[in-house]
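Subgroup meeting minutes
Present: P.N., E.W., G.H.
Scribe: E.W.

1. P.N. recapped why we're keeping a running log of single-chain structure predictions: easier to compare across weeks, and new members can see raw inputs and outputs side by side.
2. G.H. added today's entry (356 aa).
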Amino acid sequence: MQAKRFKHLYGPVPSRRLGRSLGVDIVPYKVCSYDCIYCQLGRTTRLTSKPQVLIRTDDVIRELQKWLADGHTADYITFSGSGEPTLNSELDEMVGKASLLTDIPIAVITNGSLLSEPAVRAAVSCADLLLPSLDAGTEEVFSLVNRPADGIRFHEVIEGLERARQEFAGEFWLEVMLVQNLNDSEAELEAMRRIIDRMQPDKVQINTVERPSRSGEALPVSDALLSKACEILGPCSEVIAPGPITTKADHACESAEDALLDLLGRRPCKLLDITAGTNLHLHEAVKHLRRLMSKGLVISIGAATDPYYCLAEHEGEKRIQRAPSQRRKKQRTGVRLDRQQPNERGVVRQQDHDTN
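Output recorded in log:
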């Protein structure tokens, strides 16, 4: 597979909430203010609540200019990443400069933990869409689910969310991630509803764990409980999980998923093995795995916190049956190309491989 073209951009990837979303990763892997029990990326490696320069604005904007100059498009340009984006103290400059480059809407996905800080609220003010999280209605459950860095207090997080809602001029969509037997009780949902009533977000999007998390023993709630939560959390609520992502995949997305299936056809892999073997960004790999699992093509096995992924039995059999004819085709193609250009045999074969 070709080498990564961008260091800080990934996708566009299909998203239930945002359609085709170009991800902008502005935080090193798992630098976060939370260590959420449900996190799909694993345990936080650097737990902090102090914003600082983590990735430079010029590096991000240079890549975005190149991506736009190549004629690419997306439904959203989304600042998120492998940790908490508001921990990058240059977020305000990045969002401001990005909004001047394109008419594509700018979104910021945040856990909301630092919105009590005026500088952080100012940093997201130029975005078109703000997507913070609320996973608890009480301090006790907040500590169990989000496992925050020292110094982060639940009441301050809620005050920050409410102030951000008042000050933010764009759309404000609140995500609630439900985890079985942790924040799914009726009492906890009612406590969240009281916060939501004060906050008045444009949308409340209810989600649940889709598979065993890599951060802890987090399990999904039932469809019935998702529906009940939707009723409790109010008229602006909607369920965005479970089920397959229905956004139409483009050629690049399909090519990435083919490469992922080919890799898993050779051997089971863990998530970090997949990113190394396919050159996919961590978030891209997770999104594509989610799509392939929803289609029944890939399954996870082994430890819940760091599983192996492999082809589902029927997909593996299909690829094994198809492999001999593919090898014969490549051999015939190689003979033909050798006859055409006998002095550039290696170059021709590499080019033929890259175009398939």
